[in-house]
Automatic annotation (TrEMBL):
Pfam families assigned: Ble-like_N, Glyoxalase_6
Protein name in the entry: VOC family protein
Domain Glyoxalase-like, chain residue ranges per copy: 152-264
PANTHER family membership: CONSERVED PROTEIN, GLYOXALASE-RELATED
InterPro entries noted in UniProt: Anthracycline_SecMetBiosynth, Glyas_Bleomycin-R_OHBP_Dase, Glyoxalase_6, Glyoxy/Ble-like_N
Domain Glyoxalase/Bleomycin resistance-like N-terminal: 23-48
Record organism: Streptomyces atroolivaceus
Length: 275
């Protein structure tokens, strides 16, 4: 069994609702290196994506879990894992990003059956938007599953929650939408009642930490963190940090191209006693 064998890995959350995180994507420079590394470390298989030769679709147990695109050099963006959020109109949301001092780097671009945007918040954390335009378009079908959880590590969690809330329409009251709550000095994002992301800067009431480089931390659930770390190191990756957390452990790794990601054996992005 691989470290992320679906028979033993934590159960992923269900995606649903407007403004929910709907996908994760690795922007890299070398597709073949990424394919070899993540295949060996997370047990993924790959198929060509619908976007051309520079894109792959990663699968786990036959289910799509992530996209990988060798476009960092072409679009002059950094190597990074980033989340995508469902939106009804990518153009409108792009305007909101600019109005609130964020940056729209690419798009909206028509890509397959949707429109995509690469953007950054006002502290520099990269993220994407996805507007589904296909037949019988829905924002995030209730059967889809998120095989990654998200944590925004930023300088000021409260300010970031305001930015994303205004841009994505969190707390709008829209059926199936996302809301936020302050839990144990972090901001917890729930979409259709399910915890899918956290925003963290330390204590919400304390001064922002100037040492934090804002970024979205993509967390992949695995059965055994230690085994996954060893697999990453054997295949040229680097362990950046390993730590014990409530209900389990997690490790932050760097891939061959410098992309950071986290593996965890915790079953939910929210503590069990938070729900």
């Amino acid at each position: 069994m691989t470290p992320s064998d679906p028979r033993t890995a934590p159960e992923p959350a269900v995606l649903s609702g407007a403004s929910a995180p709907c996908w994760v994507h690795l922007v890299t420079r070398d597709l073949e290196d990424a394919k070899r590394f993540y295949g060996a470390v997370l047990g993924w298989t790959f198929r060509p994506g619908p976007l051309g030769k520079d894109f792959l679709m990663a699968r786990s147990d036959g289910e799509p879990v992530a996209g990988i695109g060798a476009v960092a050099s072409a679009y002059h963006v950094g190597v990074a894992w980033m989340p995508y959020f469902s939106v009804r109109d990518a153009g409108v949301v792009s305007g909101r990003i600019r109005e609130r001092s964020g940056t729209v780097a690419v798009g909206p671009l028509t890509v397959g059956q949707g429109r995509a945007v690469l953007a950054a918040d006002r502290d520099g954390a990269s993220f994407g938007l996805w507007e589904w335009t296909g037949r019988a378009a829905t924002l995030a079908p209730s059967g889809n599953r998120a095989h990654a959880w998200l944590r925004l590590r930023t300088r000021d969690a409260f300010d970031a929650a305001i930015f994303y809330g205004e841009v994505l329409g969190w707390e709008s009251g829209e059926p199936g939408g996302c809301d936020v709550a302050y839990v144990k000095e972090e901001v917890l994002v729930r979409c259709n009642g399910r915890p899918l992301a956290r925003i963290s800067s330390g204590a919400v009431e304390s001064a922002p930490d100037p040492q934090v480089r804002p970024h979205w931390q993509v967390q992949f659930p695995v059965a055994d963190v230690g085994t996954t770390v060893l697999a990453a190191e054997r295949n040229g990756g680097t362990l950046m940090e390993r730590r014990a957390v409530q209900h389990g452990s997690e490790a932050t790794l760097r891939d061959l191209d410098g992309g950071l990601f986290t593996v965890t054996d915790v079953r939910s992005p929210a503590d069990v006693d938070d729900d």
